[in-house]
């Protein structure tokens, strides 16, 4: 266990960024999102949740796959380079770290997504404990401990000091590169902080949400439930919930006509969109009810069915905060328990 | 609120309406959701308070296709949208029973969060009959207060007034909440140099995540199929590409709703990244006012819109006009 004074964090970031890219929460035009560190970036470690999850660092919202160029009578295919340089993501919360586990099971299982795998190989994650969790948080429901992220390095901001604990080999390597700024510390204060966080988590309204009945075997029962016909109605069919989510992993692949060739790219897709999974025969989900149902069935039924019961929601609560129609996964779960409407 | 609930119950009971379109109580103190109530019993979850900011006019496009009338709760500013939708033949007046509900300014949970208030357990003072000027907010981290006016949505600070422009009956009192000039923000941007303007909008719009919430909530964006959803349209569409959001999407959308946008402010309310999208629309409104005379979309259903009504006296503000 190490520590560093808060006032020296700028030096820490500078030192990390000297050798590799560093992504961390930055405030731009009033909002906090993960972005590359620079000398004038307004680093914000106090805001609990970035608007978008840090998933972009490993699975960017849009990325090029390859370009096809015309050269005389021939076509030349130029694949996009895979990530080959190390980088650090600092300040991920425990829920977002768990989100990576969800993405890993999708992208690192056969056939492996090489773009994602290269980023996972080269990325080191420093998790920052949630000093003050909020009412929209429900990470505990998914076995996440807000007080300690299961990352390469776990960190805690306690008063004027950042505590730093490497947990993996990658974490040790990163620690070595910044060791001159760190000093040895004992675990006492961190233990107190963890307990304080746990006490707060107990008081938050969503933390003890019951997921009873939601599992990989509940397919027909949940799919055919008439409640979806009511639940979806306020949905605006926008993609907010899917684009702020740390675990949504669906993407679309498209070609862009550059004039002299074709640029093939992929970009996040949203099951809320009308052209989601559009195929030659048309679309297999023709109504917003079906699209709405898809999102929650995927998180709480289909994904667990394929992944040893693991849910693909991590309880970050971004959808709770951001849905323009005040819908969210918690309300859906509660509606199935007949708990809707309580305040 | 009780009066509104009672009226809803009566109208359902006597068969005047088949359903009520209002808000259902949330599971947090600030997240009621738009909802339909079809039975008297279901009205137990009906709520109307400071957090019912959603403009329900657009939901009436779908409700107009249903059997029988829908009682829809519209705040004064929402009625402009309803009128505009009627003008565009997107909603059916005969299918709506409009309850013009009172409004004393709607609250923005983001503004409360911006003040550092978090882990909210209870909020007092957000009730519609509440005269409180201060919200008392109980949080896990202690009791906080926040002035009602400081927690109001941007649009309420430039409120168009207490008057409902269309209704079948009025329920509840409204309060004047305007305390700023509607065009101040636009004027401040107009005063910037072109470089400053570009930097301002680039910074704001590069936050865009292409969730389309602004478009989907917008009562003026009522096309059955949006060009940006077409699979045949060769643009980046849902791909998040800075240059597209910064230079194309929002500006195309602003042009498309120009002269039809009532300035209901829903685009800015729903933007997850807090982009002040209303500024584009308001710039168009300011220009229309200056070039064609004062015009408020949704004021009525009869007047011809300046941008779709040709006269020989029309201003020619474009380069074409200058060339003669």
Describe the protein in words.
The complex is a heterodimer of chains A (343) and B (324). By secondary structure, chain A is an alpha+beta fold. Chain A is built from 11 helices and 12 strands. In chain A, strands 3-2-6-7-8-9-1-10 form an 8-stranded mixed β-sheet, with helices on both faces. In chain A, strand 4 and strand 5 form a beta hairpin. The radius of gyration of chain A is 21 Å and the shape is globular. The two termini of chain A are 42 Å apart. The C terminus of chain A is likely disordered. Chain B has 324 residues and is α/β, with parallel strands linked by helices. Chain B has 2 domains: 170 residues, no CATH class; 140 residues, no CATH class. In chain B, 32% of the residues lie in helices and 13% in strands. Chain B is built from 12 helices and 8 strands. Chain B has a 5-stranded mixed β-sheet with strand order 2-1-3-4-8. Chain B has a 3-stranded antiparallel β-sheet with strand order 5-6-7, with no helix packed on it. In chain B, helix 3 links the parallel strand 3 and strand 4. The model of chain B has no long low-confidence stretch (mean pLDDT 93). Classes of the chains: A alpha+beta (343), B alpha/beta (324). The interface between A and B is large, with 56 and 49 residues.
Cα end-to-end separation of chain B: 59 Å
Strand order of the largest sheet of chain B: 2-1-3-4-8
- The number of domains of chain B: 2
Mean pLDDT of chain A: 95
The radius of gyration of chain A is: 21 Å
Order of helices and strands of chain B: HEEHEHEHEEEHEHHHHHHH
- Helix percent band of chain B: 25-40%
Most extensive chain interface and residues per partner: A-B, 56 and 49 residues
Question: Residue share in helices of chain A?
Answer: 25-40%
Q: Which terms summarize this structure?
A:
heterodimer, A: 343 residues, alpha+beta, eight-stranded mixed β-sheet, four-stranded antiparallel β-sheet, 12 strands, disordered C terminus, B: 324 residues, alpha/beta, 2 domains, five-stranded mixed β-sheet, three-stranded antiparallel β-sheet, 12 helices, globular
């Amino acid at each position: 266990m190490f520590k560093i004074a808060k006032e020296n964090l700028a030096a820490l970031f500078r030192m990390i960024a000297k050798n590799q890219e560093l992504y961390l929460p930055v405030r731009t035009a009033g909002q906090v999102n993960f972005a590359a560190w620079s000398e004038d970036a307004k680093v914000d470690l106090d805001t609990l949740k970035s608007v978008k999850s840090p998933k972009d660092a490993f699975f960017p919202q849009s990325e090029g796959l390859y370009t096809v160029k015309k050269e005389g009578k021939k076509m030349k295919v130029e694949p996009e380079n895979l990530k080959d340089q190390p980088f650090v993501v600092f300040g991920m919360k425990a829920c977002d770290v768990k989100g990576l586990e969800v993405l890993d099971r999708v992208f690192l299982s056969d056939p492996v997504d090489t773009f994602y795998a290269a980023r996972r190989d080269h990325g080191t994650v420093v998790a920052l404990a949630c000093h003050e969790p909020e009412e929209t948080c429900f990470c505990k429901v998914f076995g996440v401990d807000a007080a300690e992220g299961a990352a390469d390095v776990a960190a805690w901001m306690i008063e004027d000091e950042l505590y730093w604990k490497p947990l993996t080999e990658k974490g040790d390597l990163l620690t070595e590169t910044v060791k001159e700024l760190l000093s040895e510390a004992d675990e006492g204060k961190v233990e107190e902080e963890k307990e304080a966080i746990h006490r707060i988590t107990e008081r938050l309204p969503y933390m003890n949400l019951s997921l009873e009945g939601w599992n990989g075997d509940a397919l027909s029962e949940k799919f055919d439930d008439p409640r979806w016909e009511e639940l979806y109605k306020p949905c605006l069919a926008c993609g907010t919930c899917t684009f702020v989510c740390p675990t949504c992993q669906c993407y679309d692949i498209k070609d862009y006509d550059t004039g002299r060739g074709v640029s093939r790219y992929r970009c996040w897709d949203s099951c809320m969109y009308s052209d989601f999974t559009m195929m030659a025969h048309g679309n297999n989900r023709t109504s917003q009810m079906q699209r709405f149902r898809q999102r929650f069935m995927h998180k709480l039924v289909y994904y667990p069915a394929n992944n040893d019961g693991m849910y693909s929601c991590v309880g970050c609560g971004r959808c709770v905060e951001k849905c323009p129609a005040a819908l969210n996964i918690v309300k859906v779960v509660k509606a199935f328990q007949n708990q809707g409407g309580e305040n | 609120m009780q009066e509104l609930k009672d009226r809803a119950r009566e109208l359902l009971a006597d068969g005047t309406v088949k359903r009520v379109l209002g808000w259902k109580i949330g599971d947090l103190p600030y997240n009621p959701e738009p909802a339909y109530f079809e039975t008297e019993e279901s009205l137990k979850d009906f709520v109307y308070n400071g957090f019912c900011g959603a403009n329900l006019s657009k939901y009436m496009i779908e409700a107009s296709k249903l059997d029988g009338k829908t009682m829809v709760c519209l705040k004064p500013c929402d009625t402009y949208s309803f009128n505009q939708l009627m003008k565009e033949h997107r909603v059916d007046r005969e299918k709506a029973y409009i309850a013009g509900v009172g409004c004393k300014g709607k609250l923005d949970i983001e503004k409360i969060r911006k003040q550092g208030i978090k882990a909210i357990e209870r909020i007092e003072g957000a009730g519609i009959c509440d005269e409180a000027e201060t919200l008392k907010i109980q949080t896990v981290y202690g009791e906080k207060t926040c002035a009602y006016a400081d927690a109001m949505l941007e649009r309420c600070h430039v409120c168009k007034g207490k008057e409902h422009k269309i209704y079948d009956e009025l329920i509840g009192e409204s309060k004047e909440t305007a305390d700023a000039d509607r065009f101040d923000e636009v004027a401040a941007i107009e005063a910037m140099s072109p470089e400053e303007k570009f930097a301002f909008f680039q910074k704001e719009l590069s936050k865009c995540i292409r969730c389309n919430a602004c478009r989907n909530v917008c009562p003026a964006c009522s096309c059955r199929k949006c060009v940006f959803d077409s699979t045949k349209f060769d643009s980046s569409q849902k791909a998040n590409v800075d240059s597209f959001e910064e230079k194309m999407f929002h500006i195309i959308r602003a042009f498309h709703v120009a002269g039809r946008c009532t300035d209901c402010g829903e685009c800015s309310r729903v933007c997850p990244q807090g982009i002040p999208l209303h500024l584009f629309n308001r710039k168009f409104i300011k220009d229309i006012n200056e070039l064609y005379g004062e015009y408020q979309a949704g004021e009525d259903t009869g007047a011809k819109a300046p941008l779709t009504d040709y006269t020989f006296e029309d201003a020619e503000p474009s380069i074409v006009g200058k060339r003669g």
